[in-house]
Each structure stands twice: as C-alpha cells, then as structure tokens.
Amino acid sequence: MANKSVVARTIHKWLALIVGVQALLWFISGAYMTIVPLEIIHGDHLEHAHSDPLKFSSAGRANAIKAMAQHFPDAKSVEFSTLDGHAVVRAVGGSQSGVIDLESGKVLTPIGRDMATRIASAAYTGSGKAVSTDWITKAPQEVATRPVPLWAVRFDDMGRTTFYVSPSTGKVVARRHTLWRIFDFVWMLHIMDYESRTDVHNPLLRIAIVMSLLMALSGIWLLLYSFHKRATK
C-alpha cells in the first residue's frame, strides 16, 4: 500500500505541476468571459441599432427591379434598406451580392473608400473619429471567418475600434475593439486552440482534460488513503 501511495503521490505532483498552469489560465479566462457582458464584447454599444425610414417612388422601384434583373439575376432574396443616404435594394445570395439605388437604378457596389468611411462613421456611436480606411484582401485573425475583401475603418477612441465594411453589401460585418481582442486571446487560452481559435475539440484540450481528471482521481485516492491510514493507527 505504501508503494502505491508513493506512486499516486508522484503522479499527482507531476500532473498538478503540468496541468496547474493551464488550470490557472482556465480560471482567469473563464473569469474574464463571465465578468464582461457579451453585448459589450460584440460591440453592440458601438453601432446604431436603428435605420432611417425608406423613401422612394414607384418609378424608383421599377428602375431598381430592372437593374436587379440585369445585374443580379440569380439573387436568392432582396432587402430594402438605406445606404449612405440612399434608399436601396440589396441583392442577397446567388453568385454575388450588390446594392442598387432605388431611385436611379444605379449599382452602388462595390463601394469605395470614401463611402465605406461614411457608412462606418454613420453607424459608429463612440467618441472617436475615423482616422484610416484600409483595403483588406487577407483577413487578419480578428475577422478570420469573414470573407474578404473588406474595408477596415479605424477610429481613434480608447478601445482602438475597427469597423469592417463589406464592399459588396455596404454592411458593417464586424466590430472589433480592445475588450473583444482580449476576449479572443483568453478564449484561445481557454480552449487551447492556438491557431484558428475556434476548435473546442482539439487534441491538446482533450489531453489537458484527461490529465486534469487523472490529477483529480489521484488526489481523491491520496485523500482516502490518508483517512484509511489514520483509522488503522
């Protein structure tokens, strides 16, 4: 029994040493993800939730329908909205997406740098100002799941906010700021996926979980052994 206790104590000690650092990272990352509201992480407070009422004539609608059939014949659905002060219809799905001015029938996409800046600035509710607008053809880690190209509109606020605008739809497809970037980092530590930061079934995490279980079981065994040893004295 004594030899078994030595083996269990050795296993427990080394597992605690190896897994202990990760356990601390699980605690810290879990605490951050619990304390900071998800709405703030998503940046809901940084973008207007409302849209302006649509104003367009029947002639404008006819122009838009004609242009839609010409430029986006395989669109799966359409959305009526406003874009940079224009009443527009947005083609969704199909081989490509695009936006058409409801009055003129003109295709407004792909949008340029100036329009992307105006769209992001109009949607932004923070205290900063747009300081740069960059054309992104290779998605950075913080928007790795978004299709490129994108316009990255950066603001000079404390959170280093960036709005990513789709050139094909004119929509703000992602909002990134310091608290989101911290969340993304601690999420990486939490799930132990140091590449894509999305795989919660990766081998490294599974190994850490098994080691943690073994550490717990060896600790329980040592606790029961100590009680048994005291009882037999």
UniProtKB/TrEMBL annotation:
<dbReference type="InterPro" id="IPR005625">
    <property type="entry name" value="PepSY-ass_TM"/>
</dbReference>
<protein>
    <submittedName>
        <fullName>PepSY domain-containing protein</fullName>
    </submittedName>
</protein>
<dbReference type="Pfam" id="PF03929">
    <property type="entry name" value="PepSY_TM"/>
</dbReference>
<feature type="transmembrane region" description="Helical">
    <location>
        <begin position="204"/>
        <end position="227"/>
    </location>
</feature>
<keyword id="KW-0472">Membrane</keyword>
<keyword id="KW-0812">Transmembrane</keyword>
<feature type="transmembrane region" description="Helical">
    <location>
        <begin position="14"/>
        <end position="35"/>
    </location>
</feature>
<keyword id="KW-1133">Transmembrane helix</keyword>
